[in-house]
Amino acid sequence: MTHDWHALLATATDDFTRTIGEVDPVAVVPSCPGWTVTDLVDHVGGVHQWAQHAVVEGNPEGQPESPAPGADLPSWYAGHATALRDTLTTVGPDVPAWTFGTERTAGWWLRRQTHETLMHTRDLLAAGDRVDEWTVEPALAWDGVAEVATEFYPRQVRLGRTDPLPGTLRLIATDVDAEPITIGAAEPVVEVRAPAAEVLLLLWHRRTSDDAAAAALLALPIAP
User: Fold this and answer.
1) This prediction's pTM
2) Torsions phi, psi of 82, nearest 5?
3) Rounded to an integer, what distance in angstroms lies between the CA atom of residue 28 and that of residue 47?
4) Cβ(173)–Cβ(197) under 8 Å?
5) Is 168 helix (H, G, I), strand (E, B) or coil?
6) For residues 30-52, b (16+ Cβ closer than 10 Å) or e, as one string?
7) Residue 102 class from Cβ within 10 Å (0-12 exposed, 13-18 middle, 19+ buried)?
8) Which of 52, 54, 78, 126 lies at a C-alpha separation of 20 to 30 Å from 65?
9) pLDDT class of 121 with cuts at 50, 70, 90
């Protein structure tokens, strides 16, 4: 399925901005241990700044700024989100850019920042005890699962941050007409069958599995 990443990123960042203003900035973020809402906003805004630098300067050496004490968090975040979106619109998806993934184009960042913002919007809602409000279209969630399989897991292994999985995850979405996605290449093969969003949450450690074998393999060391 083809996604309109510009539109999806705009919607995701607008939703994140709105939600920032609806939660307590010192509330604890349950899914990101040690973080408050302010820390979460700082993180997402910083990732947007880092991505913009990677596109404009062609390297990963960006040094994001944090919000000043007492800053208006929605405005601070919205400024950086808008700057990123404007940059990605101006350069176009096919321009070469530094990335940490399989494609070296600005379009890679459109996809990555959309998924980053969507997942952290759920974290933001969880901090306000509103996690049940989070929704994502199944096809988009399944793309997020594919991103973990093709971008994050191989990178962690390549950098020596983790050993290859001692088994294979065979992920099947029950609400998307798509081929299974596999992570790993060893025995045993452990099948996880669930709605696409649930599989995505499992991979990002926002859900746990009752299946001990699946839980062991789902403990993938990927970013918060």
Assistant:
1) 0.94
2) -65, -40
3) 20
4) no
5) strand
6) ebbeebbbbbbbbbbbbbbbbbb
7) exposed
8) 126
9) very high
